[in-house]
Specification:
Blueprint (H helix, E strand, L loop, with lengths): L10 E8 L6 E8 L6 E11 L1 H7 L16 E8 L11 E4 L2 E3 L5 H4 L10 E2 L18 E5 L4 E2 L6 H4 L5 H11 L8 E5 L3 H13 L2 E6 L5 H6 L5 E4 L3 H7 L3 E6 L8 H6 E9 L11 H5 L4 E4 L5 H13 L6 E4 L4 H9 L6 E4 L1 H4 L6
Parallel strand pairs: 10-11, 10-13, 11-12, 13-14, 14-15, 16-17
Antiparallel strand pairs: 1-2, 3-4, 3-8, 3-17, 4-5, 5-9, 6-7
Helix pairs in contact: 4-5, 4-10
The structure holds NADP nicotinamide-adenine-dinucleotide phosphate and zinc ion (2 copies).
GO molecular function: cinnamyl-alcohol dehydrogenase activity; zinc ion binding
InterPro entries: ADH-like_C, ADH-like_N, ADH_Zn_CS, CAD-like, ER, GroES-like_sf, NAD(P)-bd_dom_sf
Keywords: Metal-binding, Oxidoreductase, Zinc
């Protein structure tokens, strides 16, 4: 008979888990493996709440296995390293994002694109090499192979840096890959949430013109004055959308819910590219004419490889890019999820695991 989550490994662990598709999270005792030769073990201090955590705990993508400990924007301090670990030592500030494993022999893996390996292992809700399930960062400790651990730059605050581990790399990678960093470019960002707000910051750090396309007029002032967006378009205002038609070289679409693509494709110049980053529950409609007229492209992009994730963190540290966060205690997590579902967060919740998790132990 399979062992219980508490008994399958030698090291005790404690976190919060969802037990079913209600997504309600509650305290959960489980276990983690011993520190292997190539592993880095760390005490989790902060973990961001990504909208993917919300999709996952509610089984909106149809692949949930419970109990599920979510969390893939994990930062903390190293407590133990395996004998073959070269890059990290006890006391270092580190992070783990969405990945903890891949095959390391396919073309994607040799190109430093573990994120596109067909055998990738996500940080939670996946079977690991040893057959046990992966558990994420809403927990006290984390252990991962050195390859999947990144260094948090010295000058980067840990809590505000945590969301870069998923939101940051998810927007940085397509900005670079699709050439949206070239001087003079005009880039649209759709959705001002966790991904969207760091997308504005990275795009501005690259020096391009940025327009925010949002359903929330209430976010306009802050988007321009604080985040540095050059302009703001309310997506359900036909006049504003009309005025922006045909002006953008590229668009990053971070919307988490089903929405029409036709108006967004209209914002692109000829040869413009719409990059889908959000993962709505249901498929999106793609009208062929809107692509044919103007030779436009629709593409997708998923997080980033480990080498690029480190590069992104170093770039962020150099350009003072961090997330705007609301730090919340562990027992606020269910309320945070309700607010996230309503796009009511500026702009990322980060759980203060280090100071608030242990108090929730039954
Ligand atoms: P988030 O913080 O909830 O932000 C999503 C934003 O989308 C909201 O703030 C809102 O912005 C807008 N929005 C929400 N519902 C909408 C609707 N019905 N119509 C139009 N706009 C709507 O979520 P997030 O953490 O940034 O994640 C966004 C999406 O990316 C999720 O689906 C997540 O799973 C996915 N994701 C993908 C990857 C990847 O590798 N591709 C990585 C991480 C996350 P406004 O108020 O400005 O309209
Ligand atoms: Zn995420
Ligand atoms: Zn591979």
């Amino acid at each position: 008979m399979a062992k219980s989550p508490e008994e399958e490994h030698p090291v005790k662990a404690f976190g919060w888990a969802a037990r079913d598709h209600s997504g309600h999270l509650s305290p959960f005792n489980f276990s983690r493996r011993e520190t292997g030769e190539e592993d880095v073990r760390f005490k989790v201090l902060y973990c961001g709440i990504c909208h993917s955590d919300l999709h996952s705990i509610k089984n909106e993508w149809g692949n949930a296995a419970y109990p599920m400990v979510p969390g893939h924007e994990i930062v903390g301090v190293v407590t133990e390293v395996g004998s073959k670990v070269e890059k990290f030592k006890v006391g270092d500030k580190v992070g783990v994002g969405c990945l903890v494993g891949a095959c390391h022999s396919c073309e994607s893996c040799s190109d430093d694109l573990e994120n596109y390996c067909s055998k990738l292992i996500l940080t939670y809700n996946m079977p690991y090499h040893d057959g046990t399930r992966t558990y994420g960062g809403y927990s006290d400790t984390m252990v991962a192979p050195e390859r999947y651990v990144v260094r948090i730059p010295d000058n980067m605050p840990l809590a505000a840096g945590a969301p870069l581990l998923c939101a940051g790399i998810t927007v940085y990678s397509p900005l670079k890959y699709f050439g949206f960093t070239q001087p003079g470019m005009h880039i649209g960002i759709v959705g001002l949430g966790g991904l969207g707000h760091v997308a504005v910051k990275f795009a501005k750090a690259f020096g391009v013109k940025v327009t925010l396309i949002s359903t929330s007029l209430s976010k306009k002032k802050e988007a321009i004055e604080h985040l540095g967006a050059d302009s703001f378009v309310v997506s359900h205002d036909p006049e504003q959308m009309q005025a922006a038609m045909g002006t953008m070289d590229g668009i990053l679409d971070t919307v988490s819910a089903t929405h029409p693509l036709l108006p967004l494709l209209g914002l692109l110049k000829n040869n413009g590219k719409l990059i889908l980053l959000g993962v709505p529950e249901k498929p999106l409609e793609l009208p062929a004419f809107s692509l044919i007229m103007g030779r436009k492209t629709v593409a997708g992009s998923g997080i980033g490889g480990m080498k690029e994730t480190q590069e992104m963190l170093d770039f962020a540290a150099k350009h003072n890019v961090t997330a705007d966060i609301e730090v919340v205690p562990m027992d606020y997590v269910n309320t945070a999820m309700e607010r996230l579902a309503k796009a009511d967060v500026r702009y990322r919740f980060v759980i203060d695991i280090g100071n608030s998790l242990s108090a929730t132990k039954p």
